[in-house]
Amino acid sequence: MGSFNPFTIGHDSIVRRVLPLFDRLVIGVVGDNVHKPDMPSAEERMKVISDLYADEKRIEVKPYHGLAMDFAKAENAQFIVKGVRTVSDFEYEQWQADFNRKLGGIETILLYTEPELASISSSAVRELQHFGVDVSAYLPKKGKI
């Protein structure tokens, strides 16, 4: 679950690594992020991700509004999967996971990023794009899972 603005090779790595663990993977795309008003619409971001995984029937891409744990419960999910790159990512995800478990009964699985992808973030990719840098190396390409 995330804003995926844009969906990077780091996100793709998490999807590909976690997919063998589950029969179904729902990628929840934030539809109402008031902290990022210039973000492309949820529909635009969902299309990019859906096109990327069009051949993988176990993956669904859906928008959500509100709390991630409420979305997970509505999808009958038992787990939320998140990627972490840094200690600060871990600390943030740890307190979210605690709330998701205590308030929603949803467990969180954290996957550490692959070392070569640790510096890649959507924010960094957006900044590079802003300055006209070709970011295609940081965006996933359609391929077999």
Description:
The chain has 145 residues and is α/β, with parallel strands linked by helices. Helix content is 38%, strand content 17%. It is built from five helices and four strands. The strands form two sheets. A two-stranded parallel ribbon has the order 1-2. A two-stranded parallel sheet has the order 3-4. The radius of gyration is 15 Å and the shape is globular.
Low-confidence stretches: none
Order of helices and strands: HEHEHEHEH
- Helix and strand content put the structural class at alpha/beta
Number of strands: 4
Instruction: Bin the helical content.
Output: 25-40%
Anisotropy-based shape: globular
**Main sheet characteristics:** 2 strands, parallel
- Placed side by side, the strands forming the largest sheet appear as 1-2
Number of helices: 5
What percent strand? 15-25%
The gyration radius over C-alpha positions equals: 15 Å
State the distance separating the first and last CA atoms: 19 Å
What is the mean pLDDT?
Answer: 93
